[in-house]
Design brief:
The complex is a heterotrimer of chains A (362), B (288) and C (292). Chain A is an alpha+beta fold and 362 residues long. Chain A has two domains: 4-233, P-loop containing nucleotide triphosphate hydrolases (Rossmann fold, 3-Layer(aba) Sandwich); 240-351, OB fold (Dihydrolipoamide Acetyltransferase, E2P) (Beta Barrel). Chain A contains nine helices and 20 strands. Classes of the chains: A alpha+beta (362), B mainly alpha (288), C mainly alpha (292). The interface between A and C is small, with 6 and 4 residues.
Chain lengths: 362, 288, 292
């Protein structure tokens, strides 16, 4: 178990800078997710921790030791690959114990450690099979087992669930969560799926084009996104963004929407401005309520109605664009219905022209 | 089941295919017989007593069956020694070529070192140079090293096998990067990567290449012919052509020595048919 | 991948040394030496004096050399196109057979390819033997008497070419079958429903789709036959070999029998250049033609 620290890390491929000077601190024993869209650099970052990519500038420390120029095998980290990378010519048992065999461990030691891991991951029945004979979920467990047997201080996961079908993905997510609870080893987990990040991680690091957009607990990121990128990335269906103009009135901050609606905002730590400033108001679907036309701040026409059984989503065309509303499962809306929308000002987010959120004043 | 509706004309044409197809198959089988006949005929003749052969008249199947020709060849010629020479030189060539080519192919494929590109282009270029063009120089070299008339002299020039290196490089290239990285994470050194990952994952290639290298070395004529003047050092493929005088014109013996010479590689082929065809395809792929 | 240059280089060196040694000593050095030799009058073993382009001048006027070039070209003509086309035809036939029959057929056509040239020599020397060879029966029926094929000059090359085709056809057949198998049978079914005759199917579907393989086979055969030596030497033994020698045999003769290493190297170099030029030309030409 060890902490991981990245200091002023930069990664360049020739002239292209992919990671632009970031600092990251991963606590010992935590489950940290690196979240972001393709190309944001999350895999590159993970591979730099693993030692599979060279760190152009900066330092990496594992458990306090500088490993920036250390070989992967010496870093006490283990990695689970997206494609599992199970050695096709070896059995499950041999796959799991490969690192031990490379290091010259005796057969008895290999068997002992291998069996222990197999028991933990329920692989005992499969020990003599080849990877080609296993299902996706089984292969993933073998990949985890191979990492586990090395008793690493940090576990690295590179989008391990993306090759599984939806049902299996949910199952394996649970297994991973249980694994972390049992082992309490530091885990760094790369994914583009915010659901995985939200459900598994203690801390999420959202990456955008090589920089950290925001770091925090899942609820932190959900309720207090620091910028528009994080706000739109986290949560499904995504946050609604409505263009507005914010004015400082004597009674406080007000947001004025096109079409005349006005909403009073909760106090914010705002930069000083005169007159009006163009912003985007962000509001999540569950914080918008349906009412009669004219009774709310905005009016619109329903276009699509999705019923999921435990909840429902209504897609509404308004003068400000499309707004998604989460409604109770008992609600019945038909396309073409005219509706009014009430926004909860206490849950509204303000994003300025640069996308930065205006934090609430304490 | 989908129902397909044919017009009358199409049905007629489809039916014509079958008769046409049957004719083609018959012709093909006739071709097979014609192609296999010379080998059969040589075999059959080798088992006939000499007087039956030189007698007028044609016995497609031997009237009397004898192994006297074989016995004579085995007992009265150096064919046993030729066999030994062939085995040793072909075996050595095979082992050395495979080891060298796998190692070089791995280095070019997986390692980064100065001159890598240059070396690769050099190997590609060496393709174009015909080995027969170099026989003079090879002869002179082997003479200088005093390796003529020795196994080493026969073996060395045959170790030139750019195609094998190229095939190994291609196959090592095609091993997905993930496997290498996983093994690196597991702590493998380059040597362990080569011997415990890359080679085992490509075992079929090695077998195929080994077999075809062996066959090629066994069958080699031009170089072994040049490099060896002493009859006791000849390999079997050269030997059987150099000692006709001893037989005078004894057909059965000529043929039986030829059969004996060709038997090992024919057996290797018949047993390892799949691997041989695979290897042929690979080498052709490289040339294309 | 992380690169640790020093350990990479050392490992690479160790892995490469055997290959580099063999390659350097047996290929690079001889190639340069060969080129150098062409400018000397060196004997087979030993030093010679620099004579500039005299070897090349001699080559130009040497009747034996032009004969060798002509013979080689003639042989190439007799083998490359027939063996390529025949290989395709046989492959078409064999491909139609099923299961066990196909394996047997393939083995029959391929087995000769596996045999050493000397074994092929013996088999056919017997088949065409002027006294008792089985082929003399049909030959005598046509010609009236037995014909010593290998002693009859006009028949020598065609006979050896015929035998060479018999010997090597398996290689071509194999490649063509692989190519044919790559053509989905659905294309033929669609064509059949469209009313294509068998000939049309061949001309419009098979031939164009198999063209790359045809080029490949022809090129490989061409390069191979330009280096012809073994069969011609073996079948020509004891006869007037001046008339039938190919370029490689000329190299062998000049260097080994006439002890003219420099001159032999010159012939070798010319052969090398011819091979490179012809094969590149042919490949480009046929490729371009195929891209109609």
């Amino acid at each position: 178990m060890a902490s991981v620290e990245l200091q002023s890390i930069r990664k360049k491929y020739g002239a292209v800078e992919v990671i632009k000077g970031l600092d990251l601190s991963v606590d010992d024993g935590s489950f940290t997710a690196l979240l972001g869209p393709s190309g944001c650099g999350k895999s590159t970052l993970l591979r730099m921790v693993a030692g599979l990519e060279e760190i152009t500038e900066g330092r990496a420390l594992i458990g306090g030791t500088d490993v920036t120029h250390e070989l992967p095998a010496k870093r006490r980290v283990a990695m689970v690959f997206q494609s599992y990378a199970l050695y096709p010519h070896l059995t499950v048992a041999q796959n799991i114990c490969f690192s031990l065999s490379l290091a010259g461990a005796s057969k008895s030691v290999q068997k002992e450690k291998g069996d222990r891991v197999a028991r933990l991951l329920q692989l005992e029945a499969l020990m003599d099979r080849r990877p080609a004979e296993l299902s996706g979920g089984q292969r993933q467990r073998v990949a985890i087992g191979r990492a586990l047997v090395r008793d690493p201080e940090v576990f690295l996961f590179d989008e391990p669930l993306s090759n599984l079908d939806a049902l299996l993905r949910v199952q394996m997510r649970l297994e991973l969560a249980k694994l972390h609870n049992e082992l309490k080893t530091t885990m760094i987990y790369v994914t583009h799926d915010q659901v995985e990040a939200m459900t598994l991680a203690d801390r999420i690091v959202v990456l955008d084009k090589g920089v950290i957009s925001q770091m925090g607990t899942p609820l932190d990121l959900y309720n207090h996104p620091a910028n528009r990128f994080v706000a739109s990335f986290i949560g499904s269906p995504g946050m609604n963004f409505l263009p507005a103009v914010v004015r400082m009135q004597p009674s406080g901050l007000h947001a004025g929407f096109e079409g005349g609606a006005v909403m009073k905002l909760t106090p914010r730590a705002t930069p000083h401005f005169d007159g009006g400033q163009k912003v985007e108001i962000g509001i999540r679907p569950e914080h918008v309520t349906l009412t009669n036309p004219g009774a709310g701040q905005i009016d619109g026409v329903a276009t699509v109605f999705e019923q999921l059984g435990n909840t429902s989503y209504v897609y509404i065309d308004t003068g400000l664009g499309q707004i998604i509303v989460e409604a109770d499962q008992s609600v019945r809306i038909h396309p073409g219905d005219r509706l009014g929308l009430t926004l909860d000002p206490a849950r509204a987010h303000v994003f300025d022209a640069k996308g930065t959120a205006w934090a609430e004043a304490q | 089941m989908t129902a397909t509706i044919y017009t009358g004309a199409q049905v007629r044409r489809l039916r014509r295919f079958n008769t046409g197809g049957a004719i083609i198959s018959v012709i093909t089988l006739l071709g097979v017989i014609f192609w296999a006949f010379p080998i059969y005929w040589a075999l059959a003749t080798s088992f006939k007593p000499e007087q039956d052969i030189v007698r007028p008249g044609l016995d497609l199947i031997p009237n009397s069956f004898t192994i006297e020709a074989y016995a004579h060849v085995l007992l009265n010629t150096n064919i046993g020694i030729w066999y030994l020479n062939s085995l040793v030189t072909s075996g050595a060539v095979t082992v050395l070529v495979i080891l060298m080519s796998a190692a070089a192919g791995y280095a070019i494929s997986q390692l980064d070192f100065p001159g890598r590109r240059v070396l690769w282009w050099l190997i590609l270029a060496s393709f174009m140079v015909p080995i027969p063009a170099l026989i003079v120089n090879h002869f002179v070299l082997m003479a200088e090293f005093r390796m003529l008339n020795k196994w080493s002299g026969v073996i060395l020039p045959q170790l030139l096998a750019p195609v094998t290196v190229m095939i190994y490089k291609q196959f090592f290239d095609s091993v997905p990067r993930d496997f290498r990285e996983a093994a690196v994470m597991d702590g493998a050194t380059e040597w362990q990567l080569l011997f415990r990952l890359y080679l085992p994952m490509n075992w079929g290639i090695t077998t195929a290449l080994a077999i075809i290298t062996f066959i090629g070395a066994w069958n080699a004529f031009l170089w072994p012919f040049l490099a060896v003047t002493s009859e006791r050092m000849m390999n079997v493929s050269v030997g059987i052509t150099q000692v006709t005088d001893a037989f005078g014109v004894k057909y059965a013996r000529d043929l039986s020595s030829a059969i004996l010479a060709g038997l090992p590689v024919a057996l290797v082929y018949l047993i390892f048919q799949r691997r041989v065809t695979q290897a042929i395809m690979l080498t052709a792929g490289i040339k294309g | 991948m992380m690169r640790y240059r020093r350990s990479d280089i050392t490992t690479a060196l160790i892995l490469l040394i055997p290959f580099l040694l063999v390659y350097g000593v047996l290929f690079v050095y001889p190639t340069f030496q060969m080129v150098g030799l062409t400018f000397t009058n060196a004997p087979l073993i030993g030093e010679g004096e620099w004579i500039g382009f005299r070897n090349y001048e001699r080559l130009w006027g040497d009747r034996l050399f032009s004969r060798a070039v002509w013979n080689t070209g003639y042989f190439v003509l007799l083998t490359v196109i027939p063996s390529t086309l025949l290989g395709l035809l046989i492959a078409l036939g064999v491909n139609r057979l099923n299961g066990w029959w196909q394996s047997v057929a393939l083995a029959a056509f391929f087995l000769p390819y596996i045999l050493p040239v000397s074994v092929v020599f013996r088999i056919w020397a017997w088949m065409l033997d002027s006294q008792f060879g089985i082929m003399q029966y049909p030959i005598a029926a046509i010609w009236g008497e037995n014909v010593p094929i290998f002693r009859t000059l006009p028949l020598f090359m065609p006979a050896v070419a015929f035998i060479t085709v018999w010997w090597l056809i398996g290689f071509n057949v194999l490649l063509f079958i692989a190519g044919l198998r790559n053509i989905s049978s659905e294309i033929y079914e669609a064509a059949a429903l469209d009313g294509a005759t068998r000939w049309q199917q061949f001309a419009r579907i098979t031939w164009p789709l198999i063209w790359p393989i045809t080029v490949l086979v022809a090129t490989i055969q061409l390069i191979l036959q330009l280096k012809i030596f073994d069969q011609i030497y073996l079948f020509g033994q004891g006869g007037r070999t001046d008339s039938t020698l190919g370029m490689v045999e000329l190299i062998y003769r000049s260097a080994f029998q006439r002890n003219q290493g420099g001159y032999g190297a010159t012939v070798a170099l010319v052969l090398f250049v011819i091979i490179v030029v012809v094969s590149v030309l042919q490949y480009q030409l046929l490729r371009a033609k195929g891209q109609r």
